[in-house]
Amino acid sequence: GFWNVREHTTEVIASFPGYSDLHIGPWEGNLSAEGKRIALAGTKDGNQIAFAYDIAEKKKYPDLDLNGVTVDWVSVSYSGKFLVVNGRLEGDTGDQSQVYDLEGKKVGKPWLEYGRPSHYDLTVDENGEDIAVGVSKSKPDDGRVIKRRLSDGRVTVLTPSGYASHVSTRNKDRLGWAYATYQQRTKDWPPYVDEVVAVKLDGSMEVQRIAHMHTINVDYLSEAHACPSPDGKRVLWTGSWDDPKGRPLGVYVAELPDEMVEE
């Protein structure tokens, strides 16, 4: 359904009899860029499933059978052409991904390396290709921000050094960039310490350093997950501003100067 935040009204737009425990995600997951398509994950007849739904055309796509997969989240891609499943696909590694088309057919091989990428978001690159952008937690690019093309799994390294934590690409009106959080406060992975930066997606290794976050990670709530505004001119995160207890939490916003976002 839709929720009008300002008027606090709701509207039911679709119901799915026979399905239960349906979620967006459930932990992560976005609409397609134009807000047309969405991915839902849940159960039917005791089986774990996911499917895409086109809100504009009121069209439900076929069920994707996810039995045997420990699902973390399911999302539709930026373009709305793919479904992305993240979780444990094989063995005990976890943080693995598989791409499907909207009919439930596998696209490319599974990404079976641990977290390559991890804590990622979905967008398109400079060529209009659907990609995942996040931190790699496996060799040969451990700690770097990488992009991985959904159509074939091709990896491009985007940062020369450091160890990123989380990545967001909610800046749909500033395509070509991703916003990366560097939560760690030690100097073991220079040069980015307790920072939020913008990373260019073309493989040029260009990084815009935006702000220090002054966060201390004692639990999930105090961990910074920086997120940009749609135009990419502001980025916000939650933190305790150097309080070692990780409390109280506040929300902080950094504004980028015009010369950083104008190209």
Structural class: mainly beta
**Overall pLDDT metric:** 96
Largest sheet: 5 strands, antiparallel
Radius of gyration using CA atoms only: 19 Å
Detail the poorly predicted runs. Answer: none
Measured as a percent range, the helix fraction is under 10%
Number of helices: 1
- The outline comes out as globular
Overview features:
five-stranded antiparallel beta sheet; 22 strands; four-stranded antiparallel beta sheet; 263 residues; 2% helix
Structure description:
The protein is an all-beta fold and 263 residues long. Strands 3, 4, 5, 6 and 7 form a 5-stranded antiparallel beta sheet that branches. A 4-stranded antiparallel beta sheet has the order 8-9-10-11, with no helix packed on it. Strands 12-13-14-15 form a 4-stranded antiparallel beta sheet, with no helix packed on it. Strand 14 and strand 15 form a beta hairpin. The longest helix has 4 residues.
Break the fold down into its secondary structure elements and pairings.
Elements: E1 2-4, E2 9-11, E3 19-23, E4 37-44, E5 47-54, E6 59-60, E7 64-65, E8 70-76, E9 82-88, E10 96-101, E11 106-111, E12 118-124, E13 130-135, E14 145-149, E15 155-157, E16 166-168, E17 177-182, E18 195-200, E19 207-212, E20 227-228, E21 234-239, E22 250-255, H1 258-261
Antiparallel strand pairs: 1-2, 3-4, 4-5, 5-6, 5-7, 8-9, 9-10, 10-11, 12-13, 13-14, 14-15, 16-17, 17-18, 18-19, 20-21, 21-22
